[in-house]
Design a protein that fits this description.
Layout lengths: L1 H23 L1 H15 L31 H4 L9
Length: about 80
C-alpha cells in the first residue's frame, strides 16, 4: 500500500510541476509551438507573408547607415600613395 501511495504522490507532483512550467513560460512556449507548426506545415511559405512597414519585428537593424566615404585617389591621383 505504501508503494501505491508513493507512486500517486510522485505522479501528482510531476503533473503539478508540468502545469507550473506551462503557466510560467506560456508566452515563450506558445511562440515555439507556433514556429514548430509553421515549419511542419507543407503549405506555409514565408515569402507569402504580408509585411507591415511599421512592424518593429521587420524593421532594419541599422537605421542610421554611415555616409559614403569618397575614394581620395579617384579625385586627385597625385595624393595616392605609390609604392615601388
Amino acid at each position: 500500500m505504501a508503494a501505491i501511495t508513493t507512486a500517486v504522490i510522485a505522479i501528482a507532483g510531476i503533473i503539478l510541476g508540468w502545469i507550473t512550467i506551462e503557466m510560467a513560460c506560456k508566452p515563450c512556449l506558445e511562440q515555439g509551438r507556433e514556429a514548430i507548426d509553421r515549419s511542419l506545415n507543407p503549405d506555409y511559405d514565408p515569402d507569402d507573408e504580408d509585411v507591415d512597414a511599421s512592424s518593429a519585428s521587420r524593421a532594419p537593424l541599422l537605421t542610421n547607415l554611415p555616409p559614403d566615404i569618397p575614394d581620395p585617389s579617384a579625385d586627385d591621383p597625385s595624393t595616392a600613395i605609390k609604392s615601388v
